[in-house]
From TrEMBL:
Residues 112-231 form the Thioredoxin-like fold domain. Pfam families: DsbC_N, Thioredoxin_2. The keyword Signal applies. One of its GO terms (cellular component) is periplasmic space. Required for disulfide bond formation in some periplasmic proteins. Acts by transferring its disulfide bond to other proteins and is reduced in the process. This is Thiol:disulfide interchange protein. Gene3D superfamilies: Disulphide bond isomerase, DsbC/G, N-terminal, Glutaredoxin. CDD domains: DsbA_DsbC_DsbG. Belongs to the thioredoxin family. DsbC subfamily. SUPFAM superfamilies: DsbC/DsbG N-terminal domain-like, Thioredoxin-like. Residues 21-88 form the Disulphide bond isomerase DsbC/G N-terminal domain. Residues 1-22 form the signal peptide. It is found in: Periplasm.
């Protein structure tokens, strides 16, 4: 009976502790939101790996605060014993998606070699960094690339994206434009997935192009170096 009562008291204590912690996190969130105003949204507040600090997620950015919510600062937490960048790891986890969330019917597919390695790219046809990336990607073999067009840079981006998607061979038309500078000039009045791609980008915080995703859901923003892409593929084996 004594052991049973002790177990019950421990459980009650844990429940109470969890409740108090949740209330503290909610209060910090409310206080910081008031101070930041309505221009940005505080998504969540959770204890940071360091005692006394809390992680504050504002949009897709990580900040830290103290228990009083008086200070807000941005920086990286490095674990000295291992050299691990805890903030970077946490940011990568937050940016991760489920590969299955990507609707491949909303992308056109480019296959080279046996196509065994898979990569998804969100691209704007007028994006200079996207063009640079596409030229680099020509070096990769045994790859399947799913390209999701998101025209976010200009009205002309939407026109070109429609012409690419509506062409007889979207992958070829896209590569001809991005790599060889051959302007797409076909029809643009077919049904496209552009609105769906833009909605997906908004939901998952894809605010720039190019943005790459690998099958483990990890996200690489920007014109990533081929060496880094190959390194990532190597880690997925």
């Amino acid at each position: 009976m004594i052991k049973f009562l002790s177990a019950v008291l421990i459980c009650v204590g844990l429940i109470c502790s969890t409740s108090v912690q949740a209330q503290a996190e909610q209060q910090i969130k409310v206080d910081i939101q008031k101070k930041l105003g309505t221009t940005v949204k505080v998504k969540s507040v959770h204890p940071a790996p360091i005692s006394g600090l809390y992680e504050v997620l504002v949009g897709n950015d990580i900040f830290y605060t103290d228990a009083s919510g008086k200070y807000l600062f941005q920086g990286e937490i490095i674990e000295l014993a291992t050299g691990k960048n805890i903030t970077e790891q946490r940011q990568n986890d937050l940016n991760r998606i489920k590969w299955s969330d990507l609707n491949q019917s909303n992308a056109f597919k480019t296959v080279r070699g046996n196509g065994s390695r898979q990569l998804a790219i969100f691209s704007d046809p007028n994006c200079g960094y996207c063009k640079r990336l596409e030229k680099s990607l020509q070096q990769l073999d045994n790859i399947t690339i799913y390209t999701y067009l998101i025209p976010i840079l200009s009205p002309d981006s939407a026109q070109k994206a429609k012409q690419i998607w509506c062409s007889a061979d979207p992958s070829k038309t896209y590569i001809d434009w991005m790599v060889n500078g051959v302007t797409p000039n076909g029809k643009s009045d077919c049904t496209t997935p552009l609105d769906k791609n833009l909605a997906f980008a908004k939901t998952y915080g894809i605010t720039g192009t190019p943005t790459l995703f690998f099958i483990d859901g990890s996200r690489f923003p920007g014109a990533v170096q081929i060496t880094d892409i190959e390194k990532k593929f190597g880690s997925l084996k």
